[in-house]
Design goal:
The protein is an alpha+beta fold. It has a single domain (6-98), classed as NADH Oxidase. It is 36% helix and 15% strand. The chain has a 3-stranded antiparallel beta sheet with strand order 1-5-3, covered by helices on one side. The longest helix has 19 residues, at 40-58. The protein starts with 5 loop residues before the first strand and ends in a 10-residue tail after the last helix.
Length: 128
Amino acid sequence: MQDAPLVVVPLAHKAAYLARYAEPDKGWEDRAEARWPAPYWYIDTGMASLLMLLTAVDEGLGACFFGIVPEHLQPFRAEFGVPDEYDSIGGITVGYRAKDVPEQSGRVAERRRGVGEVVHRGQWGRHA
């Protein structure tokens, strides 16, 4: 995916997220970050990234999510004019699958644990 024709850099914008939930239709009047048990501005950006990956695969393309090392963030911001209030959560390359790579490799299935190991019923540790 190093030569992928498309690179997407998903950006989270915490201030915009907090402002949206301070609007009257959301019921909160302030932008208190303490209301959030987790940083959903990053979580939602991650979910959008996952949807991009799944959509690419559904369209028969290859896609890869990758992290951006901290020392590359400032040059990235400078090159593309990204304001400081936007945070990159990583990058996504999208391209065409290599001809010599099988469409379904068994590696994921080989490593995957069964539902009985990962689903907890009623309380943690009680498996089906």
